[in-house]
Amino acid sequence: MNTDTQPFKEEGYRLMGAAFEVYNQQGYGLGEEIYQESLEIELGLRGIPFVPKQGVQAFYKGRPLKKCYIPDLIVFGEIIAELKAVSQLLPEHHAQLINYLRLTRKPIGYLLNFGHKDTLEWERLIVSHHSLSVKISED
């Protein structure tokens, strides 16, 4: 359900449920590719629609640029999920996700860090494309 205060809240819960299951099964410390493939399998098992590694074209004044960005997952057609396997999330990880959200004009992004010991580290970013403001939450 899409609401103004919590857009794609239910979809986000479903995505996070799949991500927590992957973390519980695989633990931390593996390569990002392992978590990517595992999450794709888990999303499929749960009937959650997603597109992996789809290129996003950048433009300047209506002309395509050579640079193409490739987010890890587009879930439910509206949520960008960027996977990491690092000891902690850094500002450059946020910047990467914000770039994907701006280029795709999608409203919601999730950073999912499977490399954090003891728990899946995650953040939800909500982007207002009208003002280019970003809200980071973990709720």
Explain how this protein is built:
This protein has 139 residues and is of the alpha+beta class. The protein has one domain (9-137). It is built from 3 helices and 8 strands, in the order ααβββββαβββ. The protein has helices spanning 9-26, 32-45, 91-104; strands spanning 50-52, 56-60, 63-69, 73-75, 79-84, 108-113, 121-128, 133-137. Strands 1-4-5-6-7-8 form a 6-stranded mixed β-sheet, with helices on both faces. Strands 2-3 form a two-stranded antiparallel ribbon. Helix 1 packs across helix 2 (32-45). The longest helix has 18 residues, at 9-26. The relative contact order is 0.17.
Main features:
two-stranded antiparallel sheet; 8 strands; 139 residues; alpha+beta
List the helices and strands and how they pair.
Blueprint: H1 9-26, H2 32-45, E1 50-52, E2 56-60, E3 63-69, E4 73-75, E5 79-84, H3 91-104, E6 108-113, E7 121-128, E8 133-137
Parallel strand pairs: 5-6
Antiparallel strand pairs: 1-4, 2-3, 4-5, 6-7, 7-8
Strand percentage, roughly?
A: 25-35%
What is the number of beta strands? Answer: 8
Measured between the Cα atoms of the first and last residue, the distance is 16 Å
Order of helices and strands: HHEEEEEHEEE
Poorly predicted tracts of residues: none
Characterize the overall form: globular
Overall structural domain count = 1
Overall structural class, as computed from helix and strand content, comes to alpha+beta
The DSSP helix count reads 3
Mean pLDDT: 88
How are strands sequenced across the largest beta sheet?
A: 1-4-5-6-7-8
What is the radius of gyration?
A: 15 Å
Helicity level: 25-40%
Largest sheet: 6 strands, mixed
